[in-house]
Amino acid sequence: MEVTEATCFNCHFKKSDDPEHKYDKLIDCNTCHSWKNKTKEEMASFRYDHTLVAKNDISCTSCHTNTISGNGEVGKERCFQCHFENEKLEKYNDTEFMHNTHIKKHSMKCFVCHSPIQHKVQKIDPNSPSDCISCHSNSHSSQVNLYTGEGGFEVEKTPSVMYMNGINCKGCHVFHETDKNDVQTTKAGPSSCEKCHGTGYDNLLKQWKTASEQRLLTINSIYKVVSNQVKNSKSSNKSEAEKTLDEAYHNIRIVETGKSVHNILFADKLLTSSYSLMKKSLTLVGSSAGLPDFKSSSEFIPNECYNCHSGIQEVSVKKFGMDFSHNLHIVKNKLSCEKCHSNSEKHGELILNKQSCNNCHHSQSKNDESCSNCHKFQSEVYNGSYLNKNQPDFMKQGGSTCIDCHISSDKVVKPDNKICLKCHEAGYDESMTDWKKEINGMKSEISEMLNTVQGKELSNEQRSEVNEIKKIINQFNAYPSIYVHNYDLISTLLSEKKKKLKEMIK
């Protein structure tokens, strides 16, 4: 049979899963293209003198990429050029039989069956996409690891549901963007989710980001502690502990660089696994250092919620004008999701109102400290520390506490002006009505002045002052009865703001 240069390429560059296939050693360029034993004259005879390349030991692939094209495959349709017998066609996958029959017995050329593999320096096609991967070999590898659910240590494969359903990167990266170097890219954003999942789904993406950032902060602080313990250890197992610690860090880095939004479940498992690996590393060096708990979200969140809401325990939200901590309720008090949410009419619908929260919280300890945990604004006003002031309410100075007005028959209540008569003389209850009228009048005046000042040319300092006044008015409006908690402080503060606005309007 005829053997040409092309025949060599088809044998030596054809990839194979067969462990007996030894020909791929020619992938090393230096097997055929070594410059080290060539004379200066030989070097100079080439189109480019590679003397400095050889001297500096520069890799061929630093300059030459895509030097191999084609795969040498044998398409079954080629068999039909000569054969139609089923018994012969059934031998298609018997490589040894095929070679013995066609080459040894019939001396056929390789390319009658095989598609050719070419090996040469390729010129760049200006119309084809840039060959980024030849230099940026690990670009987006962490994102791919997360999305496909692979690549971690001591963690089971957990591919993303979207990956399993055949969604590629372009499914979410839909926003075209040109950076400062005039490079066009496509990015994803919260609204990418809504395109397929509907309005409101972008909130889930924000939850994932918030939860991941918090968990990464925690696991990285743990890693620093363990790293120092292993580094300073004199144990004979130190090298093994360092290897285990490297595996833990590898898992952390996948989540850090790959962004957990690509697979929130696998991100959770990677971080949980890294924690286990770090504990193992400490055990290997005999360290007794205590680590804070770091558990999988699955231990707090039921399976039907965990699939989408992994990490929700790290997220806090505003509800009924107060900060609501999922961690406090889910982790510390072990409340189930259905205690507050229902899927009966709308997925995840909140089925509680403010009174529902009060029924639980107000049934527990009734003291000033427990009140201020939820009612921080009212507490700051009553104590006189609001906006860094030092003007406590006169009742606070007299020793009165929250429960003196807000507890009746061992129940938390929102009292009316008659509560004043519990301690004060007849007629004092009318003071509350007067305070309310005065404070509401001042708020109305300030609101009108804010509308007037909008059209004025203001300095940066004045604009900052206007924004602060708006914030104060909005806060007072959100809590209509706040004036009762410290009338003197609020009336003084509003008078100050009125005066500043008047100066701006002049």
Question: Could you outline the blueprint of secondary structure elements for this entry?
Answer:
Elements: H1 5-12, H2 30-33, H3 40-45, H4 51-55, E1 68-69, H5 86-89, H6 95-105, E2 118-119, H7 141-148, H8 161-164, E3 175-178, E4 184-187, H9 190-197, H10 202-231, H11 238-258, H12 264-284, H13 303-309, E5 316-319, E6 322-325, H14 326-332, E7 341-342, E8 349-350, H15 354-361, H16 368-374, H17 376-383, H18 394-397, H19 402-406, E9 407-408, E10 411-412, H20 429-453, H21 460-478, H22 487-505
Antiparallel strand pairs: 1-2, 3-4, 5-6, 7-8, 9-10
Helix pairs in contact: 7-11, 9-10, 10-11, 10-12, 11-12, 16-17, 20-22
Account of the 3D structure:
There is one protein chain. The protein is mainly alpha-helical and 506 residues long. The protein has four domains: 5-127, no CATH class; 140-177 and 186-314, no CATH class; 315-361, no CATH class; 371-505, no CATH class. The protein is 47% helix and 6% strand. It has 22 helices and ten strands. The strands form five sheets. The protein has a two-stranded antiparallel sheet. The protein has a two-stranded antiparallel ribbon with strand order 3-4. It is elongated. The model has no long low-confidence stretch (mean pLDDT 86).
Using brief descriptors, characterize the structure shown.
single chain; 47% helix; 506 residues; elongated; 22 helices; mainly alpha; two-stranded antiparallel ribbon; two-stranded antiparallel sheet
How many separate domains?
A: 4
Strand content: 5-15%
The largest sheet has its strands arranged as 1-2
The rounded Rg comes to 36 Å
Proportion of helical residues: 40-55%
Which blocks of ≥5 consecutive residues have pLDDT under 50? none
Total DSSP E strands: 10
Structural class: mainly alpha
- In round numbers, the mean pLDDT is 86
How large is the count of helical segments? Answer: 22
Straight-line N-to-C gap: 103 Å
The general outline is elongated
Main pleated-sheet profile: 2 strands, antiparallel
